[in-house]
Amino acid sequence: MLLRKLIFNKGPIGSTIFQRGRSSWDIVTSVCVERLPVVTPPLNDIQKRFKELLWTVEVEKSLKSDHELRHENDKVQAELLKNESIEVDLDAVSKITAQDFEDASQDELSKFKFADIVTEADKNGDKGTYERCLQRHLVLVTDVKLGNKVWKLMPQGLWKEGESLRQTAERVISEQCGPELKVKFLSNAPCGFYKYKYPNEIDGKIGAKVFFYYANHDNGEVSKKLNPNWLTRKEMVEALPDRYNKSVQSFLIEEHF
Fold it and tell me: Which residues contact 247 (CB under 8 A, 6 or more apart)?
């Protein structure tokens, strides 16, 4: 009896059930796979001023470190030894002093060579690997065929009956990107939304409603068959369709350099 009332009810509930039963839109799940910066990006002006403030507070309010206390004790023992005092701690004097340790550390640092943040992929202009632009966020886009045209989009696939949207997202990564790519999903809920219409009606569907899921890249490359590109924010503007890119940029962290 309750079911009959809901079906034939002319109010919002019955209307919603009826509309869902004959939806004219495909449900699509897309995954935004982002590789976070590997190297700390340059600080902007606000960050630099905040860093200086924290350093000032640290110097004014912090307690002395073990190394600073060791320095002071070394000076005291050296003065006692100079005056031939009976209070001198011979065991402390015979050990390596804090200054000796500091000099050895500086010498070791001078011989250390830092790795170059410009990789081979940067030098060769290779966008097909995540080992590029180490100071920036990179988003994975692949070739996706819609109708007779191939677009640069994030991996996506149709939702199947019985799946949750999160399960569809996991399946899309597994089926389209290959077994080597490992990602970490950060939520069970979508982070963004976009919809578009098909040029022609397909199986009674006029278009697709796309639900975006966000995931961080863990390790592994993407199958080269998909012609993958790992793009920066600016490169996405050039590669992705305009409205699609605006929907994606709305849930991504902005970069300020």
Answer: 192, 193, 194, 212
